[in-house]
Amino acid sequence: MKSPTPSLFSGLIILSPLLFVYMPVQEPRHQEHEQEHEESLLEESMESLKSGFKSLRRSLPVPEAQAQTLNTLHAMQSAALECLPFCPNPPETFSNEEALLWNLQYRRSMLQVCSELCELELAVIEGRQEDAQTLFRSLGSIKKKGHRTYKEDDE
Q1: C-beta of residue 84 within 8 angstroms of C-beta of residue 110
Q2: How does pLDDT run across 60-117, given as a tens digit for each residue?
Q3: 65 and 59 in contact (C-beta within 8 Å)?
Q4: How far apart, in Å, are the Cα atoms of 5 and each of 9, 10, 112, 132?
Q5: pLDDT at residue 106, as a whole number
Q6: CB 147 within 8 A of CB 120
């Protein structure tokens, strides 16, 4: 009597989980490229926020520039949200838990920036100039705190 030979298909099904175990991890060169790409996206978004701050400094005190101010605020909100997934690397000395908290706090900070930008937008729409200036200063404080925490010293 002939012994049944397993088909090639059933052999692949049985061996496929083992293939995943032995598959190589991404090559470092690819990871470096991906990290460089993420850093460039973060830099672009942060540059957009920076230019938005400069533009707001000029347009915010001028009620007649409301449309320009609102456009700037919308661009800044988009930029803040674009930054969300690109947390700067935590210090190498951090434990896994500290690194996770670092990442979480970064995302919370970027959401806080976006929230403040929305509050500033509301103040501009409602014509509350004093509140708008106070919110603008508050954004500056958030920015300084974030840069002290997340921006590398050599920049």
Answers
A1: yes
A2: 999 999 999 999 999 999 999 999 999 889 999 999 999 999 999 999 999 999 999 9
A3: yes
A4: 11, 10, 63, 78
A5: 94
A6: no
Closest CA to 110 of 142, 73, 155: 142
Which residue did the predictor score with more confidence, 55 or 31? 55
Each residue of 76-115: b (16+ CB within 10 Å) or e? bbbbbebbbebbbebeeeeeeeebeebeeebeebbebbbe
Print the SS3 string covering 60-125: CCCHHHHHHHHHHHHHHHHHHHHHCCCCCCCCCCCCHHHHHHHHHHHHHHHHHHHHHHHHHHHHHH
Give pLDDT tens digits for 126-145: 999 999 999 999 999 999 99
d(CA 99, CA 150): 12
Whether residue 119 contacts residue 75, with contact meaning beta carbons closer than 8 Å, is answered with no
pTM over 0.85: no
CB 102 within 8 A of CB 55: no
Helix (H) or strand (E) holding 33: helix 28-59
